[in-house]
Amino acid sequence: MNNQYRPADMSLWAGRTDSRENYDAFRWHQWMRELNLNNTGSLRFAGKLSFVLLGFCCDEGVRRNHGRTGAAKGPDAIRRELANLPCTFSPEVILFDAGNITCTDGNLEASQAALARAVTQIRRLGFFPLILGGGHELALGHYRGHRDYMTDRKQIPDIGIINFDAHFDLRPFTNGSSSGTMFRQIAKEAGNSGWPFHYLCIGIQRFSNTLELFKTAAQTG
User: Fold this and answer.
1) pTM for the whole structure
2) CATH architecture of the domain formed by 5-157
3) Distance between CA atoms of 183 and 122, rounded to whole angstroms?
4) Engineered SS bond to 52: which of 72, 95, 96, 120, CB 3.0-4.6 Å?
5) At what angle do helices 138-152 and 108-124 cross, to 10 degrees?
6) Entry's Gene3D superfamilies (predicted)?
């Protein structure tokens, strides 16, 4: 697929096994399947509902934003915690692990582009992607992936974004992308193309955002 992509490490999906036949006793590690984006062939999901986990092992945007790094380890840590959860959903729901997008050279923009391509590919296969972070800068690649899938199908990318955060993450990006710029980047890209920008930020703290950021939020709607 690209240099930033790493296929799934299925050894992360391990845990207690109460039964090997009774689905009602299954845990996530027993239900998780591998999806290698380098080798999908003619695969296309034809079932009712399927989710694909894709990690974004990157916190370069956090570093650029002068934050505390470490989020790059998040995706695999999340997998280990999910592995032993019980399967409380219908067996019609299929779960896949597609591996990780990485950022080992500081090239955040390349990793965001790789994430966008992966999200688009997953959508084309008929699956719905769930992105595991990673820094908040994953939102840009995630959005672009859905946008590109929709525009390829001649659809207007009328995408709603809900952000639970104390910060708007609408900072200027004249010096490049970071974990604090992506929603401003999305707003600009959508506006330049005449597409809607729907952004709801829940949890905003007045003392965590400058007056300029409040003005920017008001201007972007």
Assistant:
1) 0.94
2) 3-Layer(aba) Sandwich (3.40)
3) 23
4) 96
5) 40
6) Ureohydrolase domain
